[in-house]
Amino acid sequence: MPNAPVRTAIFPVAGLGTRFLPATKATPKELLPVIDTPLIQYAIDEAREAGIERMIFVSHPSKASIERHVRHDADLTRTLRRRGKNSVARKLERAALDEATHEVIFVMQDEPLGLGHAVNCAAQHALPGAVAVILPDDLIVGKGCLAEMVEAYAGCDAGHMVASMEVDPDAVSSYGVLAPSRTEGQLIFSSGMVEKPAVADAPSRQAVVGRYILDGSIFADLDALKPGAGGEYQLTDAIAAGIRRIGLAGFAFSGRRFDCGSKQGMLAATLYMAAQDADYADVLSEFCVTTYATSPVAA
Hints:
Elements: E1 8-12, E2 33-34, E3 37-38, H1 39-49, E4 54-59, H2 64-70, H3 74-82, H4 86-95, E5 103-108, H5 115-120, E6 131-134, E7 138-141, H6 145-154, E8 160-166, E9 176-184, E10 187-195, E11 206-214, H7 218-223, H8 235-246, E12 248-252, E13 256-259, H9 263-275, H10 281-294
Parallel strand pairs: 1-4, 1-6, 4-5, 8-12
Antiparallel strand pairs: 2-3, 6-11, 7-13, 8-11, 9-10, 10-12
Helix pairs in contact: 3-4
């Protein structure tokens, strides 16, 4: 039986961004830009491309600037147009969510109780059926990951689907890892998922990254969940609770993923995006020449 359309996307954006302090003391990490586009904008555009109707942002009271970015700012647009900056005004209008075509809801997660808790904060606002979860820290460029997943999910006989990719052995212990049972094209049907295993104990090298399509029963499983280490509610535990009942499939997406929750990943994403644009060719060339010219090896 085909799965129902995915109409809701949940964006957990309440985190403190401690790895980027002091930059994130006043600016939410989701608004940190890759060149001139904030991470949250990439996530929003991906959800729009996937046909999502309702977008739920699970935020924190200290991060009001995220809502300002997401919603249309009519005053700012008028000011830009008065000053003759029409192209910038149009760019902002395209970036903002049009609430005539997309429902936008903000809910607050006042305490940092884990990703599972963040997703469950959106429970009463989700439309019927499966929900998508997008972690803006995981930037996936190229073919839209969520759009690919939504298309595959429609004909998939698993209730939960997670984006997955093969990682190097030394990275396995940083991820939730799938226990594959069979593969069909881009789908990796799995009997289980192990959270951050030692490489010797890992059932595979298929790591789960920040895109999920979850059967609506996920909220009941989150309600029944007991807190784990640090008092946090882990989304992976709730997913695992439903595997025997509704099934789990990994999805080998086509795009390129950057872990922008780390400084190295953010830098890599910025350099990659700059390399796609001829406007930055001279800057990149100068940077490379300067780096080698001043390195101890070159000296």
